[in-house]
Amino acid sequence: MIWTILLLVQGMLLLFVLVSKRSRSEKEPPLDKGVIPWLGHALEFGRDAAKFLNRMKVKHGDIFTVRVAGRYVTVLLDPSSYDAVIEDSVSLDFTRYAQVLMDRIFSLRIPHHNPAVEKALTKQYVPILITHSFLCGQPKNSCTCTLIRLTATRNQMFFSTCHSTTTYSPSLSLSLRAGYLTLFGGELNNNRTDPTNVYEEYRKFDNLLTKMARTTLKPEEKRTAQSVRGRLWELLAPAGLGEGSGSSPWLRDYRHLLQEEGVDEETQRRALLLQLWATQGNVGPAAFWLLGFLLTNPEAMRAVRREFSSISEQDSAQCPLLDRLQHTPVFDSALEETLRLSAAPFITREVVQEKTLQMANGHKYQLRRGDRVCLFPFISPQMDPEIHQEPQRFKYERFLNQDGSVKNDFFKGGRRLKYYTMPWGAGTNGCVGKRFAISSIRQFVYLVLSHLELELCDSEAQMPEVNTSRFGFGMLQPEGDLAIRYKPRHSH
Ligand code: HEM
C-alpha cells in the first residue's frame, strides 16, 4: 500500500515538473506562466479578466500565452488577425471546449450528438421564431395583452400603477419569462410550469454559473447548484413533448432530434436547460444595459422614442416592429453601442493540430496542439481607444453617419477593420440566434417605452459598475442597479 502511495506521489511530482517546465520556443508567442505553480494566472484571470489581459497586453503585445489552472491559453488581441482563428475549423476546434463547459455547467454529455444538425435546425427556425417572438409570441393576442398578462403574474410590480423599482431584475424577469413562453411553452399553463418559477430558479442557477464553469464552487454552493439544476430539469421536462406541450416547433424538433440520436429522457432535460441558457442568458442583460444607457442619456432616449413613434404612427399593426422591413437605424446604433460596452465573450478554440498563426503584420507564431486560443474582442476592437474615441462613453450615434446611414468604417493602424465590434462572435461559429435576439431586445424596449413613462429616481445617477467576474461569459452583468420611477403612459 505504502509503495503504491509513494509511486502515485512520485508520478504526480514528475507530471507537475513536466507541466511546469514548459518553456517558450522562439517561434511561439511570449509565454507568461505566472508565479503560482500549476494555477499560474488563474486567480487574477477569474477576478477580472479584462484588467488582467490589459496588463498582459501592455507587457507582451497583441499575442501571448498564459498559464491558467494547468492549461496554456494563447490570447490574441489584434482584431485584424482574428480571421486566422475564426475561419480555421481544421486546426482549431470549437466543440471540445464547449463540451467541457457543458459538462461542468449543465452536467450534460451527449456522446453521439451532431452539433451541425442542431445548429442547422436553429438557423432554419430563427425567422419563424422572430414572427412568433417575445411579447408578441401569441398572434391571437396583442402585445399589450401579452405584456399585461406577463406582468400580472405574481411578484411583478414593474408595470403596475405609479411606483419605483430597480431596473435589472424586472428587465431580466420580463425578458426571460416572455422568451420562455415563446420557445418552451405557448401559454402560462405549459404543463403547469409557471414561467415565474422558471425565472426564479434560473436566476439562482445563473448566479453560480461562472463558478461552475471554473469548478470553483464551495461545498455549500455545489449543493445549491445541484438542487437548483435538478429543479430546473423538472420544470423543463415536459417542454417540447409533442404539440400539446405548447412549445415552439423549434423546441419540438430539437427534442425529436435528441430522441432520434438515442438520448435518454434524463439527458434530454439537461439539454433543455442548456437551450434555455443559450437562448435567454444574454438577451435579458442586453435589454437591461440598453434601457439603462437610454435612461442615463436623455438625448439618446429622445432619439429612440422619436424613431419608434414615427413607426407606430405609420403602422397600425399590433406589433409594428415585427416587420423586418422596418428600419430603425437609431435604435440599431444604440443597441450596437450598448453591446460594444457590455458584451464580453471569450471566443475560445482548442488547438487540435499544430498551427502556424499568421498575424496581419506578417509575424508568424506556432501554436501547440492541446493548448487553447482565446480572442477577447471586448479589449480590442470594442474598448480600443485607437478604434473608438472615448471608448468608455456611451454614444448612441457612434454607428451612424452624419446622413443617418449605418457607419461601418472604423480603422486601426491605418487599416480598415472587418471587426470593429464583435458581440456575436463571427465566422463558422458566430451566433445563429443573432436576429432573434435583436428582434427580442427591440420588442422589449419598444413595449417598455411605449407603455411607460419612466425616469431615474436620481437624475444624476450613472450606470452601475460591471461584475468583473463575468468577463468571458457573454453579456456582462451589473454590480449595482439603477433606481427608476414609472407610471403607465396610457390607461389600458
Ligand atoms: C444578446 C444575445 C446574444 C449574444 C450576445 C450572443 C452571443 C454569441 C456569441 C459571441 C457566440 C459565439 C461563440 C463562439 O464563437 O465561441 C454565440 C454562438 C451561438 N449563439 Fe448566441 N448570442 C445571443 C443570443 C442567442 C440566441 C437568442 C440564440 C438562439 C435562438 C443563440 C444561439 C447561439 C448558438 C446556437 C451559438 C453556437 C453557434 C455554433 O455552434 O457554431 N444566441 N452567441
TrEMBL record:
Cofactor(s) the record lists: heme
Keyword rRNA-binding included in the entry's annotation: no
Alphabetical keyword list: Endoplasmic reticulum, Fatty acid biosynthesis, Fatty acid metabolism, Heme, Iron, Isomerase, Lipid biosynthesis, Lipid metabolism, Lyase, Membrane, Metal-binding, Prostaglandin biosynthesis, Prostaglandin metabolism, Signal, Transmembrane, Transmembrane helix
Any one Gene Ontology cellular component term annotated for this protein: endoplasmic reticulum membrane
Subcellular location(s) of the protein: Endoplasmic reticulum membrane
Catalytic activity: prostaglandin H2 = prostaglandin I2; a hydroperoxyeicosatetraenoate = an oxoeicosatetraenoate + H2O
Record carries keyword Nucleotide-binding: no
Residues the entry annotates as binding heme: C431
Main localization, broad class: endoplasmic reticulum
GO MF annotations in UniProt: heme binding; hydroperoxy icosatetraenoate dehydratase activity; iron ion binding; monooxygenase activity; oxidoreductase activity, acting on paired donors, with incorporation or reduction of molecular oxygen; prostaglandin-I synthase activity
Record-linked Pfam families: p450
Cleaved signal peptide residues: 1-25
Binding site for substrate: R104, N282, R372
UniProt membrane topology term: Single-pass membrane protein
GO biological process: prostaglandin biosynthetic process
Enzyme nomenclature, EC number: 4.2.1.152, 5.3.99.4
Family affiliation: Belongs to the cytochrome P450 family.
Function field: Catalyzes the biosynthesis and metabolism of eicosanoids. Catalyzes the isomerization of prostaglandin H2 to prostacyclin (= prostaglandin I2), a potent mediator of vasodilation and inhibitor of platelet aggregation. Additionally, displays dehydratase activity, toward hydroperoxyeicosatetraenoates (HPETEs), especially toward (15S)-hydroperoxy-(5Z,8Z,11Z,13E)-eicosatetraenoate (15(S)-HPETE).
PANTHER family recorded: PROSTACYCLIN SYNTHASE (PTHR24306:SF4), PTHR24306
Protein name as annotated: Prostacyclin synthase
Natural source organism: Salmo trutta
